Amino acid sequence: MGHFMEGIGKAVWTGALLVLLALVAKLWRSIVTRFWLEPRSLDARIRSQGIEGPPRTFMAGNMLQVMKMRDTGKERDMEGLNHDIVKHVLLDYHQWSKEYGKRYCYWWATEPRIMVTEPELIREVLAKKVTQFEKSDIMVSELVSIVGRGLVAVTGDEWSYHRRVVAPAFYLEKLKKMVPRIGLCALEMLDRWEEALREQPEIEMSSEFSKLTADIISHTAFGSSYLKGQKAFETLRAIQEELSKVNRYNYIPGKRFLPFPANFRLRKLYSDLDSLLLGLIKERRAQSGQSHDLLGLMLAECGNSSFDDRAVMEECKTFYFAGHETTAILLTWSIMLLALHPEWQERARAEAQEVCEGATPEADSISKLKLINMILHETLRLYPPVGVMMRSCFEDTILGDILVPKGAAVSFPILAIHHDKELWGEDAHEFNPERFKDGVTKASKHPNAFMPFSLGPRVCVGQSFVLMEAKIALATILQHFRFRLSPSYRHCPVFKLTLRPRHSLPLVMEKI
Ligand code: HEM
Q: Record-annotated residues binding heme (predicted)?
């Protein structure tokens, strides 16, 4: 009996050992395939087409190099106050495009990314071959951690469904109802400035515009519940801070589950945020009548469909992340450019005074602010808040003269395209809003060379909202203040998720 039991025990141990060995072998095979065999085969297919690039390292590819090169720009200011910023901000593109040509390949962890700068090919990816090119799993998981599982992050059928529910909230007729509220937010900011100017001659613009756009999105997204909206946005800002600390380890698989203190803090912040937003949505569903804020419009659109409270909550997070900082940055760069170019400041002021007659713009007069519109476009060309975009390739696809293999990605350096002399002429680095006088499609040698909001069906859903908001803010400011750059301003644009000034933007303000 004893021998019999011993025999069974041995068989169980041997079986367990075999299972363990099989699991280790499987894991080993998938590690070798994912980190060595697949990248090696993709590399060979890309290089065989004459597309060269910097040598890559195991696992991280060129990711750490790219981060380091982008950090170099953060460590020193630009030498002059000019707009030739590609070599400062996108040093990786500047160096590698000189070494390997404008079309080269670099590696983001195990994903090869082919740089594509031809607007025609970019249009093909973003507007025509949308099923072959999508956001990659790596990108989606990074986006979900930053912006939530809303419109920016979802793909395929889930994206079509979200877009159908969200897009109507941004129709011009609906946005027009938000104009008076945005005007009030701008006037409140001006009151604050008048108060501050009694003590000092300068105002710091980046933080002012960050407050303004947070205030506007809190009101326009949540209407009467805007104080709770503000609380949610503070939590989102804390999440953004924590994420910037852990993003450096993105190439480590499963890094979100590792016991970093930042991961524990993030989990708590996400859970606080979810209960706050879900509470707010429940309250709103219980109210009768329709409200004209973004949340109300979205709830009306989804009705009783399967778009549940969680899906609505993810879209609320998306509005904040996609729309708050980007808009603040647009306003910051445009006022910097107007401070630097007093002739354009005077022309824009004259237009604002003529159209608005001392008041904030009305919904129907916003389209008459043509010069201000041109100034905003020129700002978005020189300083696009989203400076680089990309898409992954899900099946072998012919793109112009390239065969993009499944598993590779294409990357579009929007900033470099907006500064390309072949597209924009010799004055590509100069501020010249006049180039937009006949509209965006005629401003350069290619109708799609201007792409701050992307192109095709996934074009920025908030595009009209942001231009409306920026026009109201600028027209209101211009009618009340004349301004110039403070001598203490230091010019140092940097990439920190978006293209922003590293230092503050102090302006010397004079009440008109
Ligand atoms: C100057 C300001 C802005 C810029 C430069 C900008 C730029 C962009 C870009 C480039 C994309 C495409 C991203 C991609 O597909 O990888 C995008 C998408 C998006 N943006 Fe904006 N955006 C701005 C403001 C806003 C605002 C104010 C909102 C909303 C309140 C917003 C909401 C969105 C959403 C929801 C998407 C995803 C659209 C989709 O995939 O269907 N954006 N934006």
A: 460
Q: Residues with Cβ within 6 A of ligand 1? A: 151-152, 163, 318-319, 322-323, 326-327, 330, 385-386, 389, 452-454, 458, 460-462, 465-466
Q: What does each C-alpha distance from 190 to 276, 292, 331, 474, 480 come to in angstroms?
A: 31, 25, 15, 11, 8
Give the pLDDT confidence score for residue 79 in this predicted structure.
85
* Extended strands (E) in 76-173: 105-108, 111-115, 133-134
Q: Which stretches of 198-225 are DSSP H helices?
A: 205-222
Give per-residue pLDDT as tens, 378-388: 999 999 999 99
Please report the pLDDT score of residue 256 as a whole number.
61
What residue spans define the domains of the chain?
79-511
Beta bridge partners of 230: none
Q: Give the global pTM.
A: 0.90
Name beta bridge partners: 61: 57, 108
Determine the straight-line distance between the first and last CA of the chain, rounded to whole angstroms.
103
Q: Classify the complex by whether its ipTM is higher than 0.90, answering yes or no.
A: yes
**More confident site: 74 or 477:** 477
Q: What is the Å distance from ligand 1's center to 90 Cα? A: 21
Q: Which of 330, 460, 471 to mutate to test the pocket of ligand 1 (most atoms within 8 A of CB)?
A: 460
Contact in structure between 415 and 499 (CB atoms under 8 Å): yes
Taking 90 as the threshold, does the pLDDT of residue 223 lie above it?
Answer: no
Give yes or no for residue 247 having a pLDDT over 70: no
Task: For domain 79-511, say whether CATH 2.60.120.200 is its number.
Answer: no
